[in-house]
Amino acid sequence: MDPVIRRQSTSHIAQWFWDAIAGLRKQGVGIEQISKTLLKQHEMSEEDVRTHLDMLVADGLLICEKKGGKFDQDSYRMPNMEEAEQSPDVHDWYCFECHQSGPVYCCQGCHRVYHGNCLPSTYKNTEGTVVFLDKFECPKCLEKKTKEECSIKRKMLNRLLNYVHYRLIGRLPYPVMQRDLAIPPIDISKVDKSTKKSPNSFPSEDDYLRVKLLLKTPMELHDIKRKAVLRRYENLTDFLHDVQTVMHNAAVYHGVNSIFADAARAMIRDCAYDINEIRQCRFCYQVSNEMKTKDWFCEPCYPKHDLVFAKQKGYSFWPAKVIKKIQNSYDVRFFGGQHERATIDHSNIRPIDADLPSLKIKKTALWTKAYQELKLHQEMLVKAPTEPTEPDGDDEPIPSDEEEEELKNLDLSPPLPSLSLTINNKTPSKKPKAPKKEKISSSPAPTPSPVMSVRKVPPKKIKRESIAEYIVELDDEVKVPKKKKKVVPVSDSRAGSEDLVTSTSQELAKTRRDSTNDKTQSELKEEIARLKSRYENEIKDLIERHKIEITETKKRQWCYNCEAEAIYHCCWNTAYCSIECQQVHWQKEHKRSCRRKTRANQQSESSQPNETT
To answer: Which residue segments constitute the domains of the chain, with CATH numbers given?
Structure first.
């Protein structure tokens, strides 16, 4: 099987030429005008411009219009929508590994293509030549064919993948199809119900045309989110391949060396790390993302992790969970603190039932807290059943077409937190509206520090039944004067009777409106006052807790070298967490300013005259 040249030109060069033609704002642009623009913007010589123009025209990314005159130059323009219609060929134009053009091998099972140099060594012989026995199948197709042992059911799997997607959005917040990063990210999660498309995905027809010319399989992170919501993923490999497709599109559309492509590569590293965490222990990954209780780290996993005492350099033996054993080392996660991870050699591992005095542990406050977590975890292990009590997620049927359309119309963008308070008081129809005093600003509240945590309490809504009952009672009261109005003498003229009826109805309506407004205003004022007092008390409690935490923090001593909690006191305001930190800081600067050393020298000098006398 010989390689095929799908395209000769690179994608970012095509973007340069399109920008130059679009900036000139003409139907057809000559080569001289393009050369001047590219020389000014990218320092490209006229010879290189001609070479790239020939390749772009051959690839169908530019249209050359021949002029019939002797002195007329050929003009170039972008293809229109009809000319950009893709051929039925499903294969990509750029290598899936390096995202460049050139001679590539087309996979027989998917749209991906690869350069011969980008293929792994399993596709090559001893001389380094690419060899295929029957047909070419790319590495991604081979990964799909290898049966992945996934014991996670589909519903729970897609739930975990939603957590992974949330982290990926932090790495790549902008859509791949958005070229101008100076403007805010486009909300491409909202779908127009009439067209079943996302109108804001492409700011203009030109951007949509560029995507159609460069990307064979357009995919965004919001497409991955929608597939996870619809429970389309059956294993972790498919999810990783989709994220890699997003990264490939970013490198092709923005350039291999662009900032966007670098962010996409960082996103791939985070995705691979999270998927590896799910494969090691999906229970640990789930509870660490949900954190339903403060003791989430103590909850048992299935299968249960081995418990050991692990020692790092500069620290005592510390209780930890064994996540994975790698040859002669252990991948552990420690109890207490931030539950940090580390790879520890087997020589620094002790069983959990080892004698504590033999380990020579220095029982600091942090170690004591970690040991308490260990004891709580062991108690939960004893009470826990052999299998998880909570269902792992039933394999529910895939949503129908109608449910899928409803899920597609959902706003999949993460909600923004808000500290403003709003009272949603919906009065019955055809009744006077409540006064517009519904929002209470949170500006008087102090800005919470990192130690503080603000808990959002939903405002209590006023019951609609109470207002409706009040209006019914008010109608009964207003009906009483109607009967007394019969005593009033009425004029025989029809005009006088009509005026009297009109004035009476207006008075009744005004009385009903005023009384309803007064009652509604009084209820709203009481509710606002109650909510203000409650939130003021909560803020006072938060401030007091913050002060207590600051006071406790000031009572502790911290290592002068690494800023961890100190256990060795040297002099005045200098302390250390370990002997290693003390030695490093002593050689670095402290031996010149140590107060204990100067005090000892003064005492030795004062004792010398006494000895001589």
So the answer is: 147-285 (1.20.920.10), 303-383 (2.30.30.140), 421-486+495-553 (no CATH), 557-599 (no CATH)
